[in-house]
Write a structure and sequence with these properties.
By secondary structure, this protein is an all-alpha fold. It has three helices and no strands. The longest helix is centred in the last third of the chain and has 35 residues.
């Protein structure tokens, strides 16, 4: 008599989820992941804006209005990047404390 010993589908799904890294199903994990992705996207956009403002400054050709515009873009981008970094660190701390 042959007996087949097989895992159930849910056991296999749990194994796959734990190997991939999706085993955590609490709400704090998902909210933290969504906030982290959003902050990463905004941080990358601000970094691109910093590079763009540097390009504007380099190509201003001595025009004081263009230099002032580039400096304003640069200052606002750096302030925004600092705000994003502080918000990301606070979010990371809160999510890790809840988890």
């Amino acid at each position: 008599m042959n007996i087949a010993h097989a895992q159930s589908f849910t056991d296999q799904l749990d194994d796959v989820q734990s190997q991939v890294g999706f085993a955590q199903t609490d709400i704090a994990f998902f909210v933290g992941r969504i906030i982290g992705v959003a902050m990463t996207i905004v941080g990358v956009l601000l970094l691109v804006l910093i590079i763009y403002s540097g390009f504007l400054w380099m190509t201003a050709g001595g025009d004081k209005e263009k230099v002032k515009k580039a400096q304003d873009y640069l200052l606002n981008s750096v302030i925004g990047l600092i705000i994003i970094l502080v918000a990301y660190s606070i979010t990371w701390f809160v999510v890790s404390a809840l988890g």
